[in-house]
Amino acid sequence: MRHDIVPLELQVVSIVVLLIFLGWVLRLVRTQRLSLRDSLVWVVTTLLATLVALFPGILVRAAHLFGFQLASNALFGAAVLYLAVNVLVNTVTGSQNASRIRRLTQECAALRAEVEEMRRGRAPGDPGSGPAP
Q: Using one digit for the tens of pLDDT, what is the confidence trace for 109-118?
């Protein structure tokens, strides 16, 4: 039995699942639940996976090129690497967002303090001995 032949049923199911996933990503973008920038990675990788599902010989050649004995092992390795990179990118983005939120919270608190001082009749930053009468 040749290892590079994928059953037609598996190809069809894979392509259908990938197209449904692509439609879901596009729906998320359309309803503004996913930004266009963030969706680009999902759209490109889904299209690449669809290409591999349509032409499984691509995966077989890539597996042999990288020294894998079975194409399924290469696919599994690529999937694990992809998920690891995706988690790292999302972790970096989350960390950046946390820093931005912290900075915005501090700026909001400073502006709120200025507004309160202005309401009390003092100019912002004026030293006051206590609350205004």
A: 999 999 999 9
